[in-house]
Write a structure and sequence with these properties.
Length: 166
């Protein structure tokens, strides 16, 4: 199994450019897709994922990040069973029935608004996320309820992509 990316800020600026910016700044979408594919038992190629995502929307090309449904569209194209949901109360059950998941959400800090993607999976202890925080050094625990975690963090506009193997 390939190595999960746990912290995108550790990617050197010149490695894996995404649009006009570095993956350390705007690469969470392709990184969540990459990590989900590893959880699914694949050996993904970052350059291929970046290229495929940059092709999706003609004016974005990764310059402002990734379209929230972009990873789901690619996973479906790659032959995976994909379930998209925006009802946070259903997230726990969907992730438990899946082999991997990708979570998209918006966050706000003062006047700054941003968005982020993370790969997730269910575990005996609850839910585990990958590439969650700018200081992550290992997989991150989301506790026993994704809805509660998202509420506690103040995240909103959440979209879950639940993925099952081919």
């Amino acid at each position: 199994m390939g190595k999960l990316i746990l912290n995108q800020t550790q990617i050197p600026k010149e490695q894996w450019r995404y649009g006009l910016r570095s993956s350390a700044k705007t690469g969470c979408g392709w990184i969540a897709l990459y990590n989900a594919l590893i959880l699914l038992g694949e050996e993904p190629n970052p350059e291929v994922l970046i290229r495929d995502l940059e092709k999706q929307l003609p004016l974005i090309h990764g310059n402002v990040g990734t379209f929230c449904l972009g990873p789901a569209l690619l996973l479906k194209k790659y032959g995976y069973s994909v379930n998209i949901c925006s009802d946070t109360q259903r997230f726990d059950a969907l992730v438990r029935k899946s082999d991997a998941a990708i979570l998209f959400y918006y966050w706000r800090k003062g006047l700054h608004l941003g968005a982020h993607f993370v790969a997730l999976q269910a575990a005996a202890s609850g839910f585990i996320g990958y590439n969650t925080y700018t200081n992550s050094v290992s997989p991150d625990s989301y506790g026993k309820s994704l809805a509660q975690y998202l509420k506690n963090q103040g995240y909103f506009g959440c979209v879950l992509t639940a993925v099952r193997r081919k």
